[in-house]
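Quick one:
INPUT:
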């Protein structure tokens, strides 16, 4: 009954200090509570303390208990059950445009860039339960992997399937990837529309220039965050296939068109990031997560259950018992 109790008027607990002198006074004066007769000797009397006389101090104990319960009731104990109801008032539509060219298999990230991105992007999706997210993959050409949806399970499943696909043309068509992502968002009614464009190279394929795609994004009010992924210097890149079908790697210079990425971000009021390690990539997605916040309305309901009434009832019963015993069983005690 008294679990998770709060007190509305805890100042009444100070009144317990008044009980201490009352208890001390009773202990000191308790022998004077009954009549006594002085005789020179009791050697001729048989004396045996009655059971009733032994119980007499219980009257005082009962009164103290009753008073204590009344003081606790005056402090007004109660429990509260809090229930929350959240409602997204202004959501965000996000499309992640991900480079899936063969260079994303480079081993400057552990175990490679593509696998590192899978984990970080999955964590990002799981941290945005109130937004709609879509996926666009691109290499030498671009395609929509998952339309904008609120079903995070579909997005996460698609991210787990991210891999180099030899069936599509290899290369880096940044303009095509960005334009495809814009096409996914242009009709969105969300209060904020965002593209996270990730690449590890320079634009060398496709029929749409990245600057043109950025102009279209700006026209539709779409903000583009660009990420260049790759270490500074040399990295192990796949450059040929072995007879068994596995990639052969060799050291090559990492080349990212950072100026292009900066221009796209600046034109659309976004921001450019450079990821040079797994840790840095994770921190970039964390920063974007903080920059693009969703407004949520939270309604909180309080259900109070007052607990003082049972205490008063118990105290009342104890007082009635004490008064009844004092006027019946212990009536002869003064």
């Amino acid at each position: 009954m008294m679990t998770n109790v709060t007190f509305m008027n805890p100042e009444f607990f100070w009144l317990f200090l008044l009980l201490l002198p009352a208890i001390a006074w009773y202990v000191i004066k308790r022998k004077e509570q009954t009549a006594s007769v002085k005789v020179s000797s009791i050697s001729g009397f048989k004396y045996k303390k009655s059971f009733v006389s032994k119980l007499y101090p219980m009257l005082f104990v009962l009164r103290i208990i009753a008073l204590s319960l009344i003081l606790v009731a005056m402090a007004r104990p109660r429990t509260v059950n809090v229930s929350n109801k959240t409602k997204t008032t202004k959501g965000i539509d996000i499309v992640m445009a991900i480079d899936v060219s063969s260079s994303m298999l480079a081993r400057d990230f552990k175990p490679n860039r593509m696998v590192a991105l899978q984990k970080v992007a999955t964590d990002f999706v799981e941290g945005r339960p109130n937004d709609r997210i879509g996926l666009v993959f691109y290499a030498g050409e671009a395609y929509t992997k998952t339309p904008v949806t609120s079903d995070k399970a579909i997005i996460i499943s698609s991210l787990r399937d991210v891999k180099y696909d030899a069936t599509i043309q290899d290369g880096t068509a940044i303009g095509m990837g960005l334009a495809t992502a814009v096409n996914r968002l242009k009709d969105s009614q969300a209060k904020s529309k965002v593209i996270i464009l990730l690449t590890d190279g320079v634009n060398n394929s496709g029929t749409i220039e990245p600057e043109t795609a950025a102009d279209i994004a700006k026209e539709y009010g779409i903000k583009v965050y660009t990420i260049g992924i790759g270490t500074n210097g040399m990295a192990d890149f796949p450059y040929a296939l072995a007879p068994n079908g596995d990639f052969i790697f060799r050291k090559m210079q990492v080349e990212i068109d950072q100026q292009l990425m900066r221009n796209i971000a600046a034109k659309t009021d976004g921001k450019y990031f450079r990821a040079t390690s797994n840790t840095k990539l994770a921190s970039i997605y964390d920063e974007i997560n903080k920059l693009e916040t969703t407004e949520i309305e939270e309604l909180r309901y309080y259900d109070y259950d007052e607990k003082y009434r049972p205490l008063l009832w118990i105290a009342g019963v104890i007082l009635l018992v004490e008064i009844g015993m004092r006027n019946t069983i212990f009536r002869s005690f003064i």
